[in-house]
Design a protein that fits this description.
There is one protein chain. The chain is α+β, with helices and mostly antiparallel strands. The chain has two domains: 24-102 and 112-118, Muramoyl-pentapeptide Carboxypeptidase, domain 1, CATH 1.10.101; 134-277, endopeptidase fold (from Nostoc punctiforme) (Alpha-Beta Complex). Helix content is 36%, strand content 15%. It has helices at 3-25, 37-48, 61-73, 84-91, 134-146, 158-170, 188-197, 207-210, 266-271, and strands spanning 95-97, 116-118, 181-182, 185-186, 215-217, 227-230, 239-245, 248-253, 257-262, 272-277. The strands form three sheets. Strands 5-10-6-7-8-9 form a six-stranded antiparallel sheet. The chain has a two-stranded antiparallel sheet with strand order 1-2. InterPro entries: NLP_P60_dom, Papain-like_cys_pep_sf, Peptidase_C40, Peptidoglycan-bd-like, PGBD-like_sf, PGBDSf.
Length: 280
């Protein structure tokens, strides 16, 4: 074979291999325990679509759960790993490829490009298929605030409040982990349950059940050690914390783990539902 032809053939082959490799590398397969830049990029893309994943560069259990939720919301196979289709949807959330269609064998079969259809919107309104507006969220939260929750008699001895708060502060900086209920990582209600259990007080496991404890009172009547609740999804009670006094509360934040925040912070003020007085 002529040397020039060999060089031309080699260049074409190299271009084909390079193109194929680039396509594959553009959609890395990431799964539990993966680490590095691609994992950080994945977490950033999830955050942009309003999933509360913590950006760490580590594909931990929390990240896996958010990937599963994204796959569920977009009607993908729920594997918890980012295959090519999951990655493509994260990069371009406005389109989704139609499923492949198997055609009968035919020498004259013509390739048909994938059809593009609008991506289902996460948490869409079932009636009109669009994201709720800010005013709709405000209306939803107002309705949640107006609901009279289940209540119980205050049950926490006042002398235990300081111990509860002291225990809670020991875990400042502990990372948020979806479903976490130990110092390795907490979600919001798992954190409260753990702190109270360390002081021999049993709480239910979930925020909505914890909201059924104590008496609903305005913030000005809360005492340190009482509980505060939020509807961060604008649908129901979905977040909780321990009131510290001086308009502050401690909680396990999905973005920064266990920390202290102010109730009058713009974000928390927007989603705050009520405090529950549990001190007797």
């Amino acid at each position: 074979m002529d040397k020039t032809v060999k060089l031309l053939f080699g260049s074409i082959l190299f271009f084909i291999v390079l193109s194929t490799t680039t396509t594959v590398m553009a959609a890395p397969i990431l799964k539990l325990h993966s680490q590095g830049h691609d994992v950080r990029l994945l977490q950033q893309m999830l955050q942009k679509q309003n999933y509360g994943v913590r950006i760490s560069g580590i594909f931990d259990i929390s990240t896996q759960e958010f990937v599963k939720q994204f796959q569920k919301d977009n009607h993908l196979a729920i594997t918890g790993a980012t295959d090519r289709q999951t990655w493509d949807l994260l990069e371009n959330p406005t389109i989704i490829s139609s499923p492949a269609i198997t055609l009968p064998p035919s020498s004259s079969r013509v390739s048909t490009p994938a059809i593009k259809t609008p991506l289902p919107i996460r948490h869409q309104s079932p009636s009109i298929g669009i994201k709720p507006t800010s005013s709709q969220n405000d209306d939803n939260i107002a309705e949640i605030r107006a609901i009279t929750p289940k209540e119980s008699a205050p049950f926490l001895p006042a002398k235990k409040a300081d111990d509860i708060i002291s225990t809670a502060k020991k875990y400042i900086g502990t990372p948020y982990v979806y479903g976490g209920e130990s110092p390795k990582g907490f979600d919001c209600s798992g954190y409260l349950q753990y702190v109270f259990k360390k002081n021999n007080v049993n709480l239910p496991r979930t925020a909505d059940k914890q909201y059924e404890l104590g008496k609903k009172v305005p913030v000005k009547k809360l005492q340190p050690g009482d509980l505060v609740f939020f509807a961060t999804d604008a649908k129901e009670i979905s977040h909780c914390g321990i009131y510290l006094g001086q308009d502050e509360f401690i909680h396990s934040s999905s973005s920064r783990g266990v920390r202290i925040d102010k109730l009058d912070n713009v974000y928390w003020q927007k989603y705050f539902v009520s405090g529950k007085h549990i001190i007797r």
